[in-house]
Amino acid sequence: MTVEVPKKRITEYSKIAPEDVEELIELTKDLKGLKVVHVNATAYGGGVAELLYTLVPLMEDLGLNAKWEVLEAPNEFYNVTKKFHNALQGAAIDITDEEFKLYEQINMENAKKLDLDADVVIIHDPQPALIPVFKEGNYIWRCHIDTSSPDKDVWERLTQKMKGYYKKALFHLNDYINSPFDNIGIEFPPSIDPLSEKNRTLSKIELSDIINRYSIDVEKPIITVVARFDPWKDLFGAIDVYREIKKVLDVQLLIVSAMAKDDPEGWTFFEDVLRYAGTDKDILFLTDLKGVSHKEVNAIQTISTLGLHTATKEGFGLVISEMMWKGNPVVARPVGGIKLQVDDGINGYLRYDIKQLAEAAIDIIKDSEKRKTFGINAKETVRKKFLTTSHLKRYLKVISEVANETI
């Protein structure tokens, strides 16, 4: 299925990142008309879809023929690929021969029916990773998850099928690059779009409307977690941190999420977290089930006192950069790509233990000057390193390299 994307103009980013825009225009002079196709699992829910909604139209505006294809698959397929996801992040999970056969079959079917006739095809994450086995082309694998210590058996079984079909493999961190991608792996952090509905500056009227709609008490400090309902995000831990803080300060915990199509187990985990939170009126669950979309997430992050992220595994965690872009400090566990974003003691705190996370949050909430300084530093970190324009430059350089190899 081809995803329709909105029109975007690279010149709109000139005020935020003028040097990046100039370099992007120069980079694409020799790439005009080049067809690039992105393939992923879903058009909605999760960071990959959000990235593509910005990157694809900007590639088009720069003169590339950029398209975005999404897999067509039954729920059983996504149950299997969720197991792949967890195994690649280190969980000990057995994937049966039947499950692997279903995985191969869906990849084969999609290789035949998706529009993949292009100069370069970028495959995102494990779900469509075997498409190159069934369709010739110039492929790049873009891995968005933490593969630093994958389940050995699952990793080898998957990557041995992938071996030899990819020209480049892109990972958030060098720590995630494993055999057989040692020679083609590249450190490749993602980005946020500062002009998207999720990150643009909102008016006071827009903020007030959302505050009232969801009965958020702005008189109390607001601790916000933005995360999918996934065991790796440890939302139980986030609630535990809140409860520790609550012993000292009267605060609210906002848990913000969307239910992704490619994550069936998310519903079960959602119910478990709801039960764990109990009837505490200062814990608010704000999801797409209540009409929370990108604008609402933006508003909630904007009015937050700080961001909290308790994931025990995290490929990158774009929600960290989103929160920091709003000028807010973040308290998080030092895992995966979070370590690239949060500079301990500069724009937030990195702690692992529940009580230490709570103490760090209390320190920021109580010290308004520190909170302000951390917030300024947080926004500047994102501006320099994690905006769309920087990400797009990295993509164009890799695309050019792969395309030129075959000319």
From TrEMBL:
Keywords: Carbohydrate metabolism, Glucose metabolism, Glycosyltransferase, Transferase
Residue ranges of domain Trehalose synthase N-terminal in the record: 38-177
InterPro entries the UniProt entry points to: Glyco_trans_1, Trehalose_Metab_GTase, TreT_GT1
SUPFAM superfamilies reported in the protein's UniProt record: UDP-Glycosyltransferase/glycogen phosphorylase
Keyword Phosphoprotein (UniProt): no
Domain Glycosyl transferase family: 211-380
Leader sequence segment: none
Gene3D superfamilies documented for this protein: Glycogen Phosphorylase B
Classification via Pfam families: Glycos_transf_1, TreT_GT1
The protein's assembly and partners: Homodimer.
Protein family (similarity comment): Belongs to the glycosyltransferase group 1 family. Glycosyltransferase 4 subfamily.
Listed PANTHER family: SYNTHASE (CCG-9), PUTATIVE (AFU_ORTHOLOGUE AFUA_3G12100)-RELATED
Protein name (record): Glycosyltransferase
Organism: Thermosipho ferrireducens
